Amino acid sequence: MNILRRIAVFGLWGEQNLAFDVHRDINFLIGENGTGKTTVINLIAAILTADIPTLSRLSFSNASLELVDPETDSPSTIAVSKEQDDISAPLVEYAITAGRSESVKYRLPQTTNTRFLSSLGTRNPTFLTHRLSLTDHLTRLLNVRWLSVNRAEATQAREDRSGDPDVDRKLDQLGTELTKLFSALTKLSEAETIAFQRVVFASLLHQESFSSILDNIKEIDIERERSILHQIFSTFKIPASDGYSAKIDYHFEMLRRALDQVARSEGVEANEIGAIIAVPRLQIVIKEWNAMVTRQEQIQRPTTLFLKILNDLFRRKTARVNDRNELVLSSDSGRQLNLKDLSSGEKQLIIILGEALLQGNARCIYIADEPEISLHVAWQEHLVTNLRRLNSNSQLLFATHSPDIVSSYDDRVLQMEAIIG
User: Fold this and answer.
1) Which residues of 193-209 are buried (b: 16+ CB within 10 A; e: fewer)?
2) How far apart are CA 173 and CA 375, in angstroms?
3) Taking the model in full, what pTM does it have?
4) How distant, in Å, are the alpha carbons of 47, 144, 239, 359 from that of 364?
5) Are the C-beta atoms of residues 397 and 370 closer than 8 Å to each other?
6) Which residue from 188, 297, 332, 372 lies 20 to 30 Å from 418 (Cα-Cα)?
7) For the segment 4-39, what is each residue's pLDDT rounded down to a tens digit?
8) Are strands 317-321 and 104-109 parallel, antiparallel or unpaired?
9) Helix (H) / strand (E) containing 20
10) In angstroms, rounded to a whole number, what is the distance separating the alpha carbons of residues 304 and 369?
């Protein structure tokens, strides 16, 4: 996937031209009100997401976004212009070039009005066909996550007239996506558990000579293995009423006595021999259990980190994932909280961090306008660091008023006054 390398805009507001390079990791567009940082970041996001209505609304003549693949340094370019055709219908034209390949062009009417589109006849394919082809092309080039000031997706904000606040709509969207992610990770963890069960059954066929067993049992950590077996039975939800706890304790008591007898070169009783013979099978089970736990922890690491960051920041609330793989919060008293009942800042924090989690540590261009909205200063100071913890492969491009968001990354600031000149 590609990231941004250079941005050029011409005819901004009909008179301004600007061009600037962007850093591969973190970028802050900063400027006084009216300098154009929101306009520029909206324009960049609209180009990368084929948001034709926004491109039609913004005042510019053409723009060029230079991309680069960080792995190969292979360049690509997305050039966009607005023009009139021979029947004075406003058009947006994309020209996408990868390396030395010939440009692929898309001409899109700046409207979705079906009567107007039908008037174009066969001279142009429909808006929908054009936009789907363009969107597919852009998706193959790059991965973009875009948070506007109102946080709701632009398409839904236009289509959804339910009257719910934009932040709550975005929170609903995010909650659905997070549930899908948590469910997928849970299935991967469950697959590891099934694989472990196969190993348990296969271990029933394992045999070793008695002398070989005696050579191996001297290094056994009885208390550790006892604890792990209790964990295994608990994980598989075997009820305590089945008496497994007493059986585990009895087994290891027999094993302890057998080890003492062997150490003194004394004979061992039948029950003690049985405990010794079971050692190789149990060690296989315990070894595979430890490996399974390690793999499951790796699978669940994104979720664990996300929850840790939230819980380190929240006060008097705890975030977790419930049995239905939904993100839920509860108060210190144990009362479950609806996400929509959270404060504005808490909602914004979940949205911003959740978007980073959904990137799956993949190469991504993460664009946000004023990510500091409603966030406490302490949260702002650590926001970028936490976003990088959730996805170190993302390229951040933020328009902001807040020096606290910038924090220690002041060498990543792009001043609009200097860019426009």
Assistant:
1) eeebeeeeeebeeeeee
2) 20
3) 0.80
4) 15, 6, 46, 7
5) no
6) 372
7) 999 999 999 888 899 999 999 999 999 888 888 999
8) unpaired
9) strand 16-21
10) 27
- Which neighbouring-strand residues pair with 364? 394
Q: What whole-number distance in Å separates Cα of residue 164 and Cα of residue 238?
A: 46
Look up residue 16 and give its amino acid: Q
Task: Round to whole Å and give the CA distance between 296 and 289.
Answer: 10
Where do runs of H (alpha helix) occur along 264-343? 270-299, 301-313
Band (218; pLDDT cuts 50, 70, 90): low
Give, in order, the Cα–Cα distances in Å from 83 to each of 12, 89, 102, 127. 14, 8, 21, 16
CA 166 distance to own-chain centroid:
21
Give the CB-side neighbour count of residue 316, counting CA atoms within 13 A.
4
Sorted by where each begins, the domain ranges of the chain are: 3-143+359-420, 206-299
Name the token pair of 308: 């840790």
Query: By the 8 A CB rule, do 144 and 49 touch?
Result: yes
Pairwise CA distance, residues 268 & 271, whole Å: 8
CA triple 78-392-27, angle to 5 deg: 50
pLDDT at residue 162, rounded to an integer: 38
Instruction: For 111-140, give one letter per residue: b (16+ CB within 10 A) or e.
Output: eeeeeebeebeeebeebeebbebbeebbee
Q: Give the tokens for residue 265.
A: 């070169």
| Closest C-alpha among 346, 367, 345, 342 to residue 355 | 367
Radius of gyration, CA atoms only, the chain: 30
The single-letter code of the amino acid at 236 is: F
**Is the pLDDT at 231 greater than 80, yes or no?**
yes
As beta bridge partners, residue 365 has 144, 395
Fold for domain 3-143+359-420? Rossmann fold (3.40.50)
Q: Answer yes or no: is pLDDT of 154 > 70.
A: no
CA distances from 160 to 152, 165, 228, 253, 338 (A): 10, 11, 52, 67, 22
Is residue 368 within 8 A of residue 359, CB to CB? The reply is: no
